[in-house]
Design brief:
Length: 159
């Protein structure tokens, strides 16, 4: 089977436009765009280097092109969407503080996060996995709701 295919956000935008789905560079992907990108592949595809403008403040900008982050989304095939999102995290205190301020977030609420950088951080990464989405894809379930261990119902919101 081989490794997962890898494309950049820029390549994904070009693919979407070629398919007649007009999207400008800098626009975020929704479910429709994720489905259109993934239908070109027979396995999950990694899309990397998304624009810094719409990604989380803590994602490390690419040193070669600060317009994009060192991050990726893993898109499942067959329309299941993003199952993993990850990135290198900003380890530089001053850059992190400037990103918090640029996003209009209260610096005092993130002081503990800044202190971690100030008193000894190093280059590192993290990711999040959409477990329910992954299970839906692996099991071929038609809807994400079928994978949630404690479903919320109209008259029952507690398990």
């Amino acid at each position: 089977m081989g490794p997962f295919p890898r494309i950049t956000y820029t390549e994904a935008v070009e693919r979407l436009n070629a398919k007649g789905n007009p999207i400008a560079w800098g626009d975020d992907f929704g479910a429709d765009e994720e489905t259109l990108v993934s239908e070109d592949f027979d396995r999950p595809v990694m899309v990397s280097r998304f624009p810094t403008a719409f990604k989380a403040f803590y994602m490390q900008p690419d040193p070669e092109n600060p317009e994009v982050v060192l991050g990726l989304d893993l898109l499942a095939p067959e329309g299941y969407g993003e199952i993993i999102g990850g990135s290198q995290r900003i380890h530089d205190h001053d850059l992190l503080k400037s990103r918090i301020e640029a996003n209009g977030l209260p610096v005092e609420a993130f002081q503990w996060y800044l202190d971690v950088r100030k008193y000894g951080s190093f280059p590192h990464s993290g990711f999040g996995m959409g477990l329910e989405r992954f299970v839906a894809w692996m099991c071929g379930l038609p809807h994400l709701r079928e994978t949630i261990p404690y479903p919320r119902l109209l008259y029952k919101i507690y398990p």
